[in-house]
């Protein structure tokens, strides 16, 4: 709900901001997995939702920018189908893992996954950006 205050002000650097939001979401999840305070947990959930909203807005904006209008319905439908399927599978897997791994440790593992994915994708994006810049600078 709070991300709508910031999202309209994001005009560029959608990839970097979106991946930064993913990393922030992972950090908040990691903090949440170690907090014992209910009030702190509520604040961390709000901050996670804020980061998630900004990240989703950035990624949706990139898809809208790159995808022709006539294909956007299909693309967004496929993305929603994939993300909901993956969410269901991950929730099932997490439920199974909770039989052997304590919930706080499992939350921390998820947080490390978010952070690692964000950092690796940022590094990959930087590498691609550098290659693109170098190829544009070469004389023909």
Report on this model:
The chain is an all-alpha fold and 140 residues long. The chain has helices at residues 14-34, 38-66, 69-97, 103-137. The chain has one domain (2-137). The protein has four helices and no strands. The model has no long low-confidence stretch (mean pLDDT 90).
List keywords for this structure.
140 residues; mainly alpha; 81% helix
Q: Major sheet: size, sense and barrel closure?
A: none
Low-confidence runs of at least 5 consecutive residues: none
Secondary-structure-based class equals: mainly alpha
Topology order in helix (H) and strand (E) letters: HHHH
Summarize model confidence as the mean pLDDT: 90
Strand tally is 0
Query: Based on CA inertia axes, which overall geometry fits?
Result: globular
> How many structural domains are formed by the residues?
1
Range of helix content: over 70%
Strand content: under 5%
Computed over alpha carbons, the radius of gyration is 18 Å
N-C termini distance: 50 Å
Q: How many separate helices?
A: 4
């Amino acid at each position: 709900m709070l991300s709508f205050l910031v999202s309209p002000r994001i005009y560029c650097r959608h990839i970097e901001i979106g991946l930064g939001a993913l990393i922030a979401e992972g950090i908040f999840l990691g903090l949440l997995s170690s907090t014992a305070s209910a009030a702190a947990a509520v604040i961390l959930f709000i901050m996670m939702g804020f980061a998630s909203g900004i990240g989703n807005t950035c990624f949706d904006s990139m898809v809208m920018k790159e995808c022709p209008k006539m294909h956007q319905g299909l693309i967004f439908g496929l993305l929603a189908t994939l993300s909901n399927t993956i969410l269901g599978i991950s929730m099932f897997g997490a439920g199974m893992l909770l039989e052997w791994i304590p919930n706080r440790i499992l939350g921390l593992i998820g947080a490390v996954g978010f952070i690692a994915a964000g950092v690796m994708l940022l590094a990959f994006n930087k590498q691609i950006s550098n290659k693109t810049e170098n190829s544009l600078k070469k004389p023909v």
